[in-house]
């Protein structure tokens, strides 16, 4: 009985999905948007690969320049990648930039003096310690601002552009399909009218 109920539930979900598909087909605007998203997937994949390459290159640069001053954010390649993802979402990215502009001793943000213990009395992780402060205003500013421009602005524009182009192409295709259907209907109507005229002329000739 349990298997039967599970199968019935799956079938019901499938029926609901089919209803959603029918709704999409009935609304041309919604169909155009979905076709645009699907059509733009190839371009989106290439943009994602390019974005990943940008993240990787900046992560290596961040690790080289900031690992001593800012080990919590750039202590290794993995931390650097996570930090860059955070920056790309605009979450407190200026705080990270300021730590590396002024140094972790002048602008500690999350850092504490070395050998500080936590509230439980245990020694805190070494990534929290500011042991090698070395601010570098020019490099930090250029690094973080250029990354924000590339990741949050340029790449987002590429994503929007790829989807917009795909939607435009799908809209043109739907328009051409509609025009072809209208031409076919007119041609079929013309053929029927010609056949009716021939039949009428033949009937008139027989009557004469």
UniProtKB/TrEMBL annotation:
Residues 185-208 are annotated as: Disordered. Residues 196-208 have a biased composition (Low complexity). It comes from Heterosigma akashiwo. Residues 185-195 have a biased composition (Basic and acidic residues). It is a multi-pass membrane protein. Coiled coil: none annotated. Residues 5-168 form the Ion transport domain. The keyword Membrane applies. Its main location: membrane. Keywords: Membrane, Transmembrane, Transmembrane helix. GO terms for molecular function: voltage-gated sodium channel activity. Gene3D superfamilies: 1.10.287.70. This is Ion transport domain-containing protein. The chain crosses the membrane at residues 44-66, 142-166.
